């Protein structure tokens, strides 16, 4: 049997074939079909060209080959697949990429004279019509591959149109004649190879597999180009009755049908009888692959869900939501995302270790790359699914409400960073001190709002849960002192910190309280984190500090390719400098203290081997705890919130979370370890970067460490102190074991922390060692002065 494809021009033999079929149909049925004009040109002595032209004029316009629904792929940042989406599991392939054996098998069983007849096989049609007449007019069999293609194309085009679908599947002669007319038009306009390629891509092969490529992957875990005889014969046998011969449900029927295909191939001398017999004795050889359609099967399910919600908001992908959904699920797109699978695995693993799916708590992590906005990971403790007993949900608790439907949770003292950054930007010195008493009552009229008028809703009582006393920005932040920030916010007002937080990515939508005073976001309590936010929002905001004031919108997608691999749309970085770099540097300098000795992060053991900074957050009644921390290369927000299955907030106190009973939840000891485990798992892959020290000539009150200049010459000591941001002064000569004229010690002494610009007094050696009982000087490296703060 020959399967070589002819050229696209219709030969005279195929013209006469069309005419003969029509005449035979009319003779068998004894009917005249309206609109089916048959020019019996041979009787008039017309030539083949005249017949072809006349026939073409009498036929409808070419049946449009609409794009077939295809599978969309979602890839990670390195090009690895993480999910697939489809309404029909199909991947189009060219005929050249389908095994020759598969082509021979489908032609043998479905239309063995496909390459030699016209739109249909005259003999087969007449035989089928005679049979149908005897069967009370039921149209059966006899359809050529071209006719089958036409039927499938009409069904595909009828999607969503009930009337068109009914017409495309009606068991009537009218449908058959309409298909015949379109089939003749297709044969006139296209080559046999084109028709066969379309047919193999549109055909349904059962068990959700559309097209031969998807069928090959589904049933045998290989590409269509590698199908062998046994596999090809089984697939070829499926198209007649994909459900009845489905090998996953009816393997015996599938074998019987496959063997019939093999016998037909032997009968047509496509294969030898011996080959057919040997193959018939083999099993099906299935290697069935699950369909894995949708985000629920993804390696990063809630990141995948975020990607879809993000793209569904993009009106450039379609005028309506349904248009956008159709493109995503049927367009055969390749979606390139920002997720890092190592980061995702680290986040998933840490969340799973700290919060169980059925706990009365939700654990969530979000990772963002500073300077790009690329979302590297999204993880939560409640898996994706419908089984409530397993704690499954489709609510995405990690992303903003418009992308995940969760209203978010209060973020507690992590909001102090917005007041801190505003204060520094307003030139308030880092050494700004307040007497931060344990309990203080503030008058809300002392807090200016955006219109310049006082907020004015009465008294605001504030208490500390950590420490109290005389504090500056460093100590007040490291110890998260509420009453310090209550006073600092009086200097900044509530408008600018609120505006800054919005600009840094927080979806703050309720700036004013209702008539009862509830639901307020832009209030004096803003600094204590009363608005509801998501971990992704907080990771985006803090990534701005890590990027030295450069804010980048969270970005889960970098580009989309169409089904042909051409660029459909790019999603470039969207960044702007929100804070002066010196201001962000100062914020980082303060927040890194949380991860250093004396800070809550350090005490909880969640500090890294690389420079990091962060801020804890604990809300009222311990209903949610946070730790938002970052390195210069990665910002991560960790949240554990008490919540029942419906997501209603409840206290974490007294709950068993991750198998551990919580007496009292805190940001550092409850959410912090989940942050630390995730970050430590990927720490080695992060670059060795440090934060840039804040510039003392730009930021007032930067705390600097006084360099140890003991034993240096006065000139060298002066230069070292100037380089460190201090103002050197001479204080006279003292007893010292150092050489005459060299520096004996300074005040404040080396190692002390003081504000940039502060005066450091140099005391020179007189060359006379001090008495032995004197412990202040004379020893190399010895210090003297006020000590550190």
What does this structure look like?
With 789 residues, the protein is an alpha+beta fold. Among the domains are: 413-530, DD-peptidase/beta-lactamase superfamily (Beta-lactamase), CATH 3.40.710.10; 703-765, 2-Layer Sandwich (Trypsin Inhibitor V, Chain A). It is 35% helix and 15% strand. It contains 26 helices and 25 strands. A hairpin with a 6-residue loop joins β4 (361-368) and β5 (375-380). α1 (12-29) packs parallel to α5 (122-134), α18 (416-425) crosses α20 (482-492) and α18 (416-425) crosses α23 (581-591). It is elongated. The model is unreliable at 1-10, 24-59, 137-141, 514-518 and 774-789 (pLDDT under 50).
What does the secondary structure layout of this molecule look like, with pairings?
Blueprint: H1 12-29, H2 41-44, H3 48-58, E1 72-75, E2 81-85, H4 100-110, H5 122-134, H6 145-157, H7 162-169, H8 173-189, H9 192-202, H10 212-220, H11 229-238, H12 251-267, H13 273-280, H14 301-312, H15 321-330, E3 334-337, H16 341-354, E4 361-368, E5 375-380, H17 401-404, E6 409-410, H18 416-425, E7 434-436, E8 439-443, E9 459-463, E10 469-471, H19 473-478, H20 482-492, H21 495-503, E11 532-533, H22 535-546, E12 550-552, E13 557-561, E14 567-570, E15 575-577, H23 581-591, H24 600-603, E16 613-618, E17 624-631, E18 634-642, E19 656-657, E20 660-661, H25 667-682, E21 703-705, H26 714-723, E22 727-734, E23 743-747, E24 753-755, E25 759-765
Parallel strand pairs: 1-3, 22-25
Antiparallel strand pairs: 1-2, 3-13, 4-5, 4-18, 6-11, 7-10, 8-9, 12-15, 13-14, 16-17, 17-18, 19-20, 21-24, 23-25
Helix pairs in contact: 1-5, 4-11, 4-12, 6-7, 6-8, 6-9, 11-12, 12-13, 16-25, 18-20, 18-21, 18-23
């Amino acid at each position: 049997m020959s399967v070589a494809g002819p050229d696209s021009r219709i030969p005279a033999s195929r013209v006469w074939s069309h005419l003969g079929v029509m005449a035979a149909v009319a003779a068998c049925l004894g009917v005249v079909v309206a609109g089916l004009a048959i020019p019996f040109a041979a009787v008039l002595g017309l030539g083949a060209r005249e017949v072809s032209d006349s026939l073409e004029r009498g036929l409808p316009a070419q049946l449009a080959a609409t794009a077939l629904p295809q599978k969309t792929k979602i890839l990670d940042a390195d090009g690895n697949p993480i999910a697939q989406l489809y309404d029909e599991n199909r991947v189009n392939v060219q005929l050249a990429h389908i095994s020759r054996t598969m082509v021979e098998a489908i032609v043998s069983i479905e239309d063995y004279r496909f390459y030699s007849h016209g739109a249909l096989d005259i003999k087969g049609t007449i035989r089928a019509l005679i049979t149908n007449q005897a069967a009370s007019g039921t149209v059966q069999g006899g359809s050529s591959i071209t006719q089958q293609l036409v039927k499938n194309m009409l069904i595909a085009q009828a999607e969503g149109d009930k009337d068109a679908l009914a017409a495309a599947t009606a068991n009537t002669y009218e449908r058959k004649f309409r298909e015949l007319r379109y089939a003749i038009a297709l044969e006139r306009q296209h080559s046999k190879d084109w028709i066969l390629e379309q047919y193999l891509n549109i055909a349904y092969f059962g068990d959700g597999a559309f097209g031969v490529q998807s069928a090959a992957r589904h049933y045998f875990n290989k590409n269509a180009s590698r199908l062998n005889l046994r596999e090809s014969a089984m697939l070829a046998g499926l198209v007649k009755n994909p459900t009845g011969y489905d090998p996953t449900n009816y393997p015996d029927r599938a074998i019987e049908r496959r063997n019939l295909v093999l016998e037909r191939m032997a009968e047509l001398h496509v294969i030898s009888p011996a080959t057919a017999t040997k193959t018939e004795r083999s099993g099906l050889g299935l290697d069935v692959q699950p369909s894995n359609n949708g985000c629920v099967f993804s390696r990063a399910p809630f990141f995948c869900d975020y990607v879809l919600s993000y793209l569904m908001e993009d009106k450039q992908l379609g005028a309506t939501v349904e248009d956008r959904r159709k493109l995503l699920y049927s367009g055969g797109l390749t979606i390139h995302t920002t997720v890092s699978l190592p980061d995702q695995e680290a986040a998933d693993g840490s969340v799973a270790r700290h919060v169980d799916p059925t706990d009365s708590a939700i654990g969530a992590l979000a990772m963002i790359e500073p300077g790009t906005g690329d979302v590297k990971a999204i993880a939560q403790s409640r898996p994706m699914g419908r089984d409530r007993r397993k704690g499954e949900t489709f609510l995405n608790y990690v992303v903003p409400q418009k992308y995940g439907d969760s209203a978010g949770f209060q973020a507690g003292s992590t909001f102090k960073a917005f007041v801190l950054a505003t204060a520094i930007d307003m030139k308030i010195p880092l050494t700004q001190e307040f007497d931060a008493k344990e309990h203080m009552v503030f008058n809300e009229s002392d807090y200016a709002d955006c219109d310049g008028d006082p907020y004015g809703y009465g008294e605001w009582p504030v208490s500390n849960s950590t420490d109290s006393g005389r504090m500056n920005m460093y100590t007040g932040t490291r110890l998260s002192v509420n009453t310090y920030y209550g006073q600092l916010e009086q200097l900044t007002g509530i408008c600018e910190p609120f505006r800054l937080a919005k600009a840094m990515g927080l979806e703050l939508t309720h700036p004013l309280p209702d008539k009862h005073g509830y639901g307020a976001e832009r209030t004096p309590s803003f600094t204590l984190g009363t608005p509801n936010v998501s971990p992704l929002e907080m990771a985006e905001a803090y990534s701005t500090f890590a990027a030295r004031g450069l804010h980048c919108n969270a970005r889960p997608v970098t580009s989309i390719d169409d089904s042909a691999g051409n660029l459909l749309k790019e999603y470039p970085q969207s960044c702007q400098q929100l804070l002066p770099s010196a201001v962000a540097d100062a914020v980082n300098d303060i927040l890194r203290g949380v991860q250093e000795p004396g800070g809550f992060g350090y005490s909880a053991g969640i500090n890294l081997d690389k420079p990091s900074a962060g801020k804890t957050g604990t809300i009222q009644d311990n209903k949610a705890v946070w730790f938002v921390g970052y390195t210069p290369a990665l910002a991560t927000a960790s949240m554990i919130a008490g919540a029942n299955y419906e997501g209603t907030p409840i206290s974490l106190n007294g709950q068993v979370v991750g198998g551990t009973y919580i007496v009292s939840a805190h940001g550092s000891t409850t959410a912090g370890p989940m942050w630390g485990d995730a970050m430590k798992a990927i720490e080695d892959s992060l670059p060795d970067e440090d934060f840039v020290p804040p510039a003392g000539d730009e930021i007032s009150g930067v705390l600097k460490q006084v360099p140890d200049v003991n034993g240096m010459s006065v000139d060298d000591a002066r230069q070292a102190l100037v380089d460190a941001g201090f103002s050197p002064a001479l204080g006279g000569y003292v007893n010292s074991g150092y050489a005459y004229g060299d520096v004996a010690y300074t005040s404040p002494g080396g190692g002390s922390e003081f504000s940039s610009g502060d005066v450091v007094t140099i005391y020179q050696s007189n060359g006379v060692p001090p008495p032995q009982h004197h412990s202040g000087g004379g020893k190399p490296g010895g210090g003297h002065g006020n000590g550190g703060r």
